[in-house]
């Protein structure tokens, strides 16, 4: 097979169906940009989980005098020194679950509240004796929150046991939902792209049916006849894949590093690095090359009957 002939036929096909080729490039670019974006979103969520779950604490809040008057969990009164000693002793026995225990006094809790919510109108009316003492527990495995909850919920002197992981789970659930929505749009765009590729190849084959008929008569092999059409689709797809890679690089640069500059404005979020983006680009380019080529191959088998 002469490479010059194949390349010339690719150029002819792309020029003849310029509008449909442009539509293929755009649809492939958008669908693969969404594909790459959904992969990066998954990486971002997993990285945030690893970062924040490692910082999650379980808090055992102890009853104070105010709680004894208003909270049914503290009906037996404020926590006593003996009860605190018993709670701490039980935590020390749970070495297989508990990594670290930190005690926070009422004065420390008041200080932390003032640091975080000092501008709130409520802050001026609070006093240290209204704050709750607590034990902040760092777990070896954040998934083992229920072990602590079942051991200390309802105990005398304990107002509540709270797990910060529950708050994070709601956030990650929202992010995962958005990611699945992006994947659904991506799937629809891929279907549109495949339909455009098939139609473009069929139109190209129909417009050159005289040439392909002559080639069959002189004994050209099926693959020799199909190759220009398959490579047309592959080239158009590869251009679309390159555009998709450009979208991802530009988005990473302007949204996180510059422009919106989220890496500095949202410094509590541990954003994925450039390595995560760059490792996705070969997959996107390979998909952009193989997907149109295979779609064209199967469409031509039926259409040309070679």
Automatic annotation (TrEMBL):
It is found in: Cell membrane. It is a multi-pass membrane protein. Residues 56-161 form the FtsX extracellular domain. It comes from the Bacteria. The chain crosses the membrane at residues 21-41, 180-201, 222-255, 281-300. Residues 185-302 form the ABC3 transporter permease C-terminal domain. Keywords: Cell cycle, Cell division, Cell membrane, Membrane, Transmembrane, Transmembrane helix. Pfam families: FtsX, FtsX_ECD. Belongs to the ABC-4 integral membrane protein family. FtsX subfamily. Part of the ABC transporter FtsEX involved in cellular division. NCBIfam families: FtsX_actino (NF038346). Forms a membrane-associated complex with FtsE. This is Cell division protein FtsX.
């Amino acid at each position: 097979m002469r490479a010059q002939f194949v390349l010339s036929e690719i150029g002819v096909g792309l020029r003849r169906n310029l509008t449909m080729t442009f539509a293929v490039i755009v649809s492939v670019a958008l669908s693969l940009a969404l594909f790459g974006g959904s992969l990066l979103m998954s990486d971002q969520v997993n990285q945030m989980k690893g970062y924040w779950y490692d910082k999650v604490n379980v808090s055992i809040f102890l009853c104070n005098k105010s709680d004894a008057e208003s909270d049914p969990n503290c009906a037996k009164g404020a926590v006593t020194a003996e009860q605190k000693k018993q709670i701490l002793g039980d935590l020390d026995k749970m070495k297989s679950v508990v990594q670290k225990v930190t005690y926070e006094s009422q004065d420390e809790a008041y200080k932390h509240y003032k640091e975080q919510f000092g501008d709130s109108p409520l802050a001026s009316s609070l006093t240290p004796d209204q704050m709750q003492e607590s034990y902040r527990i760092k777990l070896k495995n954040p998934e083992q929150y229920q072990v602590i909850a079942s051991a200390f919920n309802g105990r005398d002197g304990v107002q509540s046991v709270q797990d910060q992981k529950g708050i994070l789970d709601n956030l990650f659930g929202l992010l995962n939902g958005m990611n699945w929505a992006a994947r659904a749009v991506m799937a629809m765009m891929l279907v549109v792209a495949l339909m455009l590729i098939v139609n473009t190849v069929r139109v190209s084959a129909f417009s050159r049916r005289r040439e392909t008929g002559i080639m069959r008569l002189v004994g050209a092999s099926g693959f020799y006849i199909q190759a220009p059409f398959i490579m047309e689709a592959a080239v158009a797809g590869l251009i679309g894949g390159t555009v998709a890679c450009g979208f991802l690089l530009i988005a990473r640069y302007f949204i996180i590093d510059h422009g919106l500059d989220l890496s500095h404005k949202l410094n509590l979020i541990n954003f994925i690095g450039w390595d995560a983006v760059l490792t996705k680009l070969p997959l996107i380019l390979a998909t952009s090359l193989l997907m149109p080529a295979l779609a064209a191959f199967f469409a031509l088998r039926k259409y040309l009957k070679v």
